Amino acid sequence: MKLTVKGITDGQPVPETFAFGVYSEEDHMSFGPNRNPELEWSDAPEGTKSFVVIMFDPDVPSKADDVNQEGKVVPRDLPRVDFFHWLLVDVPPDMTRIPEGADSDGVIPKGKPPGSGPIGVRGVNTFTHFLAGNPDMAGTYGGYDGPCPPWNDELVHHYHYEVHALDVESLGLTGEFEGDAVREAMKDHVLASARVTGTYTLNPDLR
């Protein structure tokens, strides 16, 4: 399979158009345009019955104590975990393109609804947990929400955009399912996969 993410070159920075948070000289971070990028894929194998779209960041701090704290840094050698930014399952087999902005166009406080959306079925991204303690933002975040790494992180984050071709029409996931559930349900059903990786940072010393 071949995947193209329009505007993102493999290994190069993700444009701010696709980011949840953008650099601000005054207060470190402000909301970005938060548009999903255009994805287009080809050469799916014979027998493909649906697609899954996943976008995740494997570089998120495993401990959030020092995240976005004045006078502190998130050290490069801190153990990291996956943060899911985009989960779409049961994408029809005749669909090979998701237009820019089709699943997200702007930051939506308290999140977009999960479940059946404009493309397939939306899972719940990890902003649901990250923003749970913020009364103005807490909610269930479905679909795409873009990069917003800690502005004091010593590590540049990587963002993996993936499309997986499956041999089943549906993964049977309902309700507020998350990334680990998608990965578990996909096991033994993946016919082919493709990935494009971009980078992003809000740390002014790394930009």
Name of the CATH first level: Alpha Beta
Shape: globular
| Low-confidence regions | none
Q: Compute the gyration radius: what is it?
A: 17 Å
Strand content is 25-35%
Distance between the termini: 32 Å
Count of helical stretches = 2
Query: If strands are numbered along the chain, what order do they take across the biggest sheet?
Result: 8-9-6-5-10-11
Mind describing the biggest β-sheet? 6 strands, antiparallel
**Average pLDDT metric:** 97
- SSE sequence, one letter per element: EEEEEEEEEHEHE
The number of strands is: 11
Total domain modules: 1
| Gross CATH architecture | Alpha-Beta Complex
Notable features of this structure?
mainly beta, YbhB/YbcL family Raf kinase inhibitor-like protein, 6-stranded antiparallel beta sheet, YbhB_YbcL/LppC-like, 2 helices, Phosphatidylethanolamine-binding Protein, PEBP, 11 strands, 3-stranded antiparallel beta sheet, PEBP-like_sf, about 210 residues, about 5% helix
Written overview of the protein:
- This is YbhB/YbcL family Raf kinase inhibitor-like protein.
- Residues 100-119 are annotated as: Disordered.
- By secondary structure, this protein is mostly beta strands.
- The protein has one domain (2-200): PEBP-like (Phosphatidylethanolamine-binding Protein, Alpha-Beta Complex), CATH 3.90.280.
- The chain contains two helices and eleven strands.
- It has helices at residues 127-130, 179-186, and strands spanning 2-5, 21-24, 28-31, 39-42, 50-61, 80-91, 97-98, 115-116, 121-122, 157-166, 190-200.
- The strands form three sheets. Strands 8-9-6-5-10-11 form a six-stranded antiparallel sheet, with helices on one face. It has a three-stranded antiparallel sheet with strand order 1-4-7, with no helix packed on it.
- Strand 2 (21-24) and strand 3 form a beta hairpin.
- The longest helix is centred in the C-terminal third of the chain and has 8 residues, at 179-186.
